[in-house]
Specification:
Radius of gyration of chain B: 25 Å
Shape of chain B: globular
Structural class of chain A: alpha/beta
Largest interface: A-B, 29 and 21 residues
Distance between the termini of chain A: 52 Å
Number of helices of chain B: 11
Strand content of chain B: 15-25%
Largest sheet of chain A: 7 strands, mixed
Strand order of the largest sheet of chain A: 2-1-3-4-5-6-7
Strand order of the largest sheet of chain B: 5-6-4-16-17-18-15-19
GO biological process, one term (chain B): mitochondrial respiratory chain complex I assembly
Oligomer: heterodimer
Protein name (chain B): FAD-dependent oxidoreductase domain-containing protein 1
Order of helices and strands of chain A: HHHHHEEEHEHEHEHEH
Radius of gyration of chain A: 25 Å
Number of helices of chain A: 10
Helix content of chain B: 25-40%
Number of strands of chain B: 21
Keywords (chain B): Electron transport, FAD, Flavoprotein, Membrane, Mitochondrion, Mitochondrion inner membrane, Oxidoreductase, Respiratory chain, Transmembrane, Transmembrane helix, Transport
Helix content of chain A: 40-55%
Domain FAD dependent oxidoreductase (chain B): 34-426
Distance between the termini of chain B: 75 Å
Subcellular location (chain B): Mitochondrion inner membrane
Shape of chain A: flat
Chain lengths: 238, 457
């Protein structure tokens, strides 16, 4: 505390504003702040795990399909039953209609979990749907390579997979798609985790020959062109 | 200015200042510690992390990890091929692999440090593929049922299914194949080691670079007598003598528990206490059966080789290979026969070995590999357990406070998170709590009951 008194601004300068005094106060309590930040990250992680918890109670009383449907709706996703043509969605606030309870024991055929926080543990609620044809996971922040490896449970039925804009997927995870032999359409656009997208897309096409792969949103220009442009720009400035 | 510096030095030397002409080497370990872990590889740091993770009170145990070589030039961890698989025949090994894969899946939850970059293991989820011929197909089927029972996601493939899935494989001689669907692949061992190390140091583990040159007895050692009147020398480690690198300076670290995680060099540590040099038919006469064995790994480049879905293929002849990166590079090797074990005094690579033993097997199994070029190679040590090639985990019967966690014979890296947790449970809780590894204790060496893996290789 005596050190900070010496560090305070010298005589003659204006007194520090609230923000500066707050920061100086916090610098004395480094370990407390570190503890608070780690508690906050622990809290966000716990909330995420709570969202992706195993819906065992629902499974026991309502059956596997209703449990999967309920899970999808609670995470603000959408799905379509096999044999039906209407989609069941939850709106932005999380409200959904309970009509899906009328369709007992119908498996799910298409699932749209785009922009939801589903992760590996949440996938255990969907594993029972062995006749799943379409799975959309566009922009999911928690879908990573281990999630993709788990998708092997759908290897017989899955025909369409959309994993574009997922920040955590890397090349090692795309190798896990080798098991999905029935895949017909795959969307891997704009994956920030892949370092050399052109090469990876070619290797994916070789690995899954019957699959139509969509891969937009990548800059396939050579880096040399960018370097030349920068040099010209520098020369013009001189 | 010379006068000025002289005056400053004289003023410093006066009583009341903290300057002293004798400077203590800051790299010395502390004089006292609770647990000294000998060996700074992935197993040693995993044990250090789990000890800190499980302690009930902050600062409850003072852990020091002693590593001989800061460059890790001979350490098995960093020279490993980095694969993890669940395809074992012993239930304990399968459980260890599953637990380690679970750990790696949630690695940022376990080893994430605040305000530092997240850990990226670069895990390739490509699976392992074992090929069996007629003689060993029944072993593979038995192992498959054990693996499924334990919860590993493995599938069996017939030769036609194999050819359909991997058209580049020559299914000549193959009767059955075992393919891992999930939790199998390879990753970067250096990242895992550094993640453990960074997290453990952030939790207060003390890292020390030095070599353990002696294990000293505590001052109040007693000797026991057996019923027939012979004296049994119960050894107990009182302090560990740690010598600084390239120096004669040493520091005896007084400790309560020593963990032997020295990998390929674990045998030398127990020799310091006389284990192995007692009378032939006594416990003291049985040395720790862990010795270094050299294994070669060759990096080859083949432009027409298998693509992104290449698994870690292990043939029944012992030849293995896996993809490395995206540019058509592969890593290949083979386990040599007992008779042709290479010399372990150095880590020099024998390129003739590739021509004679590895290439024919590779070219037979994958015809595209007939045209390949060896770009690089390296050699590393296995901490080879000469008794049954599985890890030794537990207290040594004669040395009452030395815990062994060594002898994994090539599986140390993939089991390291789970083994670290098991040893921490043994030390802090007294028993195994999550995975029961009592079958891997030193007892099996005394009773001569090997826990052999029924491998096809």
């Amino acid at each position: 505390c005596t050190v900070s008194a010496q560090m305070l601004p010298a005589v003659g300068s204006p007194p520090p504003c609230c923000q500066a005094t707050l920061l100086l106060f916090l610098t004395q309590r480094f370990y407390d702040v570190e503890m608070l930040l780690s508690w906050r990250s622990q809290l966000t992680r716990n909330q995420l795990q709570k969202k992706n918890v195993y819906y065992g109670y629902t499974q026991r009383f309502y059956g596997l399909d209703i449990a999967s449907a309920y899970f999808i709706l609670s995470l603000k996703g959408g799905f379509r039953f096999a044999g039906q043509s209407e989609w069941f969605y939850a709106d932005q606030k999380g409200k959904f209609s309970w009509d899906f309870l009328n369709h007992k024991d119908t498996p799910l055929e298409e699932v749209d979990m785009s922009y939801t926080v589903i992760n590996y543990r949440g996938l255990c609620n969907l594993e029972s749907q062995r006749s799943l044809r379409t799975l959309k996971l566009r922009g999911c922040p928690e879908v990573d390579d281990w999630f993709l490896a788990r998708l092997h449970v759908f290897q017989d039925s899955l025909e369409e997979l959309d994993i574009s804009h997922c920040p955590r997927i890397t090349t090692g995870g795309l190798a896990a798609l080798r098991n999905l032999k029935g895949l017909k359409r795959l969307d891997v656009s704009s994956l920030p985790g892949i370092s050399s997208p052109g090469l990876v897309i070619i290797l994916l096409e070789e690995m899954l020959p019957q699959c139509q792969i969509t891969a937009t949103g990548y800059d396939y220009n050579l880096n040399e062109a960018e370097g030349e442009e920068e040099e010209e720009h520098m020369q013009r400035q001189r | 200015s010379k006068v000025k510096s002289f005056r400053k030095k004289a003023a410093d030397a006066l009583p009341g200042s903290s300057w002293s002409p004798l400077q203590i080497n800051p790299n010395l370990p502390p004089e006292r510690a609770d647990i000294v872990i000998v060996g700074g590889g992935v197993v040693g740091w995993s044990i250090a992390y789990w000890l800190k993770q499980k302690e009930m009170v902050r600062g409850g145990v003072r852990v020091v990890v002693v590593e001989k070589d800061p460059t890790y030039s001979q350490a098995s961890t960093v020279l490993s091929a980095g694969g993890i698989r669940q395809q074992f025949s012993l239930l304990e090994n399968i459980h260890l692999s599953l637990a380690s894969a679970d750990f790696m899946r949630n690695i940022n939850e376990h080893l994430g440090v605040l305000n530092e970059d997240p850990v990226d293991l670069q895990f390739n989820q490509s699976g392992y593929l074992f090929l069996a011929n007629e003689e060993v197909a029944h072993i593979m089927e038995e192992n498959y049922s054990t693996q499924r029972y334990a919860g590993a996601k493995v599938s069996l493939l017939s030769p036609t299914q194999l050819k359909q899935k991997f058209p580049w494989v020559n299914t000549d001689g193959v009767v059955l194949a075992s393919y891992g669907l999930e939790n199998e692949g390879w990753f970067d061992p250096w990242t895992l080691l550094n993640a453990f190390r960074r997290k453990a140091i952030s939790m207060g583990v003390i890292q020390c670079y030095g070599e353990v040159t002696g294990l000293l007895r505590p001052p109040d050692t007693k000797t026991e007598k057996t019923s027939s009147g012979d004296t049994v020398d119960l050894k107990r480690i009182g302090s560990v003598k740690v010598q600084m690198p390239n120096s004669l300076e040493y520091q005896p670290v007084e400790c309560a528990i020593v963990v032997n995680a020295a990998g390929a060099f674990s045998g030398k540590l127990t020799e310091m206490l006389g284990i192995g040099s007692g009378p032939k038919d006594s416990i003291a006469g049985i040395p720790l059966p862990v010795e270094p064995r050299k294994r070669y790994v060759y990096v080859v480049h083949c432009p027409d080789g298998p693509g992104l879905d290449t698994p870690f293929l292990i043939d029944y002849s012992g030849v293995y290979f896996r993809r490395e990166g995206l540019g058509g590079n592969y890593i290949a090797g083979v386990s040599p026969e007992e008779a042709e074990e290479p010399d372990t005094s150095n880590l020099e690579v024998d390129h003739q070995f590739f021509e004679e033993r590895v290439w024919p097997g590779l070219a037979h199994r994958v015809p595209a590999f007939e045209k390949l070029k060896v770009t690089s190679a390296w050699a590393g040590f296995y901490d080879y357990n000469t008794f049954d090639q599985n890890g030794i985990i537990g207290i040594h019967p004669l040395i009452n406070n030395m815990y062994l966690a060594t002898g994994f014979s090539g599986h140390g890296l993939q089991h390291s998170p789970a083994v670290g947790r098991a040893v921490a449970e043994l030390i802090l809780d007294g028993n195994f709590k999550t995975i029961d590894l009592s079958n891997f204790s030193f007892r099996r060496i005394l009773t001569q009951e090997p826990m052999l893996e029924k491998n096809i290789v």
